[in-house]
Design goal:
- The chain is mostly helical.
- It contains 9 helices and no strands.
- It has one domain (about 1-210).
- About 80% of the residues lie in helices and about 0% in strands.
- α3 (about 50-70) packs antiparallel against α5 (about 80-105) and α6 (about 110-135) runs antiparallel to α7 (about 140-165).
- The longest helix has about 30 residues, at about 180-210.
- The two termini are about 20 Å apart.
């Protein structure tokens, strides 16, 4: 258990750096949609407000997330932490609603597997965020931190998907197979894998804090 905790501690700076870089990439890459150019919007043109709401809300969540987990900021400036948390929650809700509209309209041609995977992702994003907010309101701060972490894992899943979609191997797999099936697999793995890893680490940490049984 101590080994797991040490590895987790060593990996945090690397993880934070990766999160910042991926978030910056996602925001810059998605900013082109705000040009409102029909060529850029493509199939999203009839649902411009939905795609912009999804991107803007997601960007707010991406930027706000690291500040929420900044321990010294959280402890010294609680009001600021609450404001950032509220911005994060609103951003997620806007982004999730936009995603719901897009999945129910522009994604239909990619098949049931793709649609189900996106609905599951959106539902998980909303539920984990609402639970994080609820735990904060009821002052269950340890649970609040855990659910906020799960919510941010789902937030980052959208970024991971965007990067993986652009990889040549993804394009090759999509050309050789049903692209909807390939994308659905990427979506499921992008959040279930990190979520499983987080809960496994969390379980080890909780067990390591428990007192040893009396002999």
């Amino acid at each position: 258990m101590q080994i797991v905790n040490k590895l987790y501690g060593y990996g945090r700076p690397v993880g934070k750096t990766i999160i910042v870089l991926l978030s910056a990439f996602f925001i810059v890459h998605s900013a082109r949609f705000f040009s409102l150019s029909p060529d850029v919007l493509g199939k999203y043109l009839p649902y411009t407000w939905a795609i912009l709401g999804h991107i803007a809300g997601g960007a707010v969540a991406l930027v706000a997330g690291p500040f929420l987990f900044w321990k010294s900021l959280r402890q010294k400036y609680r009001r600021t932490h609450r404001i950032i948390g509220q911005a994060y929650t609103i951003g997620v809700l806007f982004a999730a609603f936009g995603a719901l509209i897009l999945v129910s309209t522009t994604a239909l041609s990619l098949g049931l597997s793709y649609i189900v995977s996106l609905h599951a992702l959106g539902a998980t994003w909303t539920i984990t965020t609402v639970l994080a907010w609820r735990m904060a309101v009821t002052k269950q701060f340890k649970l609040h931190e855990e659910w906020a972490t799960r919510s941010y894992i789902v937030t980052m899943a959208f970024v991971i998907q965007s990067v993986v979609y652009m990889l040549p191997i993804t394009q090759q797999l999509g050309a050789a197979n049903a692209i909807g099936e390939v994308l659905a697999t990427i979506i499921w793995v992008s959040w279930t894998g990190p979520m499983f890893l987080y809960d496994m680490i969390l379980s080890f940490q909780k067990r390591s804090r428990q007192p040893a049984p009396a002999l």
